[in-house]
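In full, the data:

***
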Amino acid sequence: MLSHHEKQQVINILDEVLGVGTSLKNDEQAHYCPFCHHHKKKLQINLKTQKWHCWVCDAKGKRINRLLKRLHVDSRKLKKLYEIYGDDYVVYSKDTEDEKVELRLPNEFQSLLKEPKGLNPLFRKVKEYVRKRGITTRDINAIILVIVIVVIMPIVLLFQVMMEIIDSITSSHVLYSMRKSLSIKIRRFRKTLSCLKTK
């Protein structure tokens, strides 16, 4: 549930992007629709459920961030919305086709690899429990490496097999571009994998 401060932050972002809106009952806002440009405020946005709908042109969606992405809003505003609603945050680089995904963990999550600053009795209890079980940081890193090898490496091999099949079928322009796209993705994955191995 959103706090009053968080609701106000969302309203401020919507007002900046869509123009000043009107507050309705049940945590809903009415704005001018950026798609049909109707002369009345017909775009309704529910701040709790994040659903939005224009009653004129029938533009609709289930997430406020999708609406703002369609409007090519500044990534800082999108990030703020993601922080408030707790969704995954995706940043697309303007220079390349690369995309960076920041997965959001629950607020209760605490990493065992980094010791928090200050006194944290819960962290100490968890750390003591893990130590009693004989689990070290090296063990955790080994488990991550096993997951990468067992789960992700077969996917890379599948991509390589697909590329070989595409090569053997034909060398048409469409298939060449598909192969090129797959090889770029494999190179990115290998680079990520090598970074994980060095850690």
Remarks:
- The helical segments are 4-18, 64-70, 75-85, 121-132, 137-169, 173-198.
- The mean pLDDT is 76.
- The chain has six helices and seven strands.
